[in-house]
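Thread: quick sanity check before group meeting

JM: Hey all, I'm pulling together slides for Thursday and realized we never actually wrote out the predicted structure for the chain we discussed last week. Dropping the sequence here so it's in one place. If anyone has concerns about the input, flag it before I start.
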Amino acid sequence: MKSSRFSVIRCALLAAVFGAALQVPAQAEDEKEWTEAALQLPAAPAADALLTFHQTGTIQFQIDANSLSIAADGTIRYTLVATSTAGARNVSYEGLRCSTYEKKLFAFGRPDGSWSNARRADWTRISQTDANKQHHVLYTEYLCDGNTIAGKVPDMIQRWIITALYTAMVPSDTTMPSRRTPPSASSCRYSLWAWLKSTVHPACW
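JM (edit): ok, ran it. Output follows.
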């Protein structure tokens, strides 16, 4: 009877130790937190490197191709240039997180080409409203594929080239095909889209 009781106790202790060992990896995984990479501000945007990606009735939004990068923390960083029809120009250095559908303002560009760090540098949810959907367009059409990064930087730049060429060649087309929704395979527009996608090399921009 005594031996049986010790066997039960021994089994209970082994079960407890084994159970604790199984929980260690899960706890370590939970404690693993995302760490933001250090900020490195780029050079001032060059006019010949600006890529247009969105336009409202009064503002044109562009990205400086030279500033586009993927940071060590998995965020995409870029210089955004917004120019109004009246000539006003706003330059900002920003970040975008595909995994969380968030954006962050790092700094504002000064007229002399220097930067002024943003006072409130928090990650915020991307807006989809008509007046402020530029980041949503970046997220869905150029930089992200769902909640992951849409390829390497040359792949992203290639999308701008294809879009710009298509728009220039078919200016009356109000349904510009995106990488997610190409034109119907039976249309002439699809032939043009497929040709551009197969012939444009990222280095040609």
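AS: nice. The radius of gyration is 25 Å. Residues 5-31, 201-205 have pLDDT under 50 and may be disordered.
JM: adding both to the slides.
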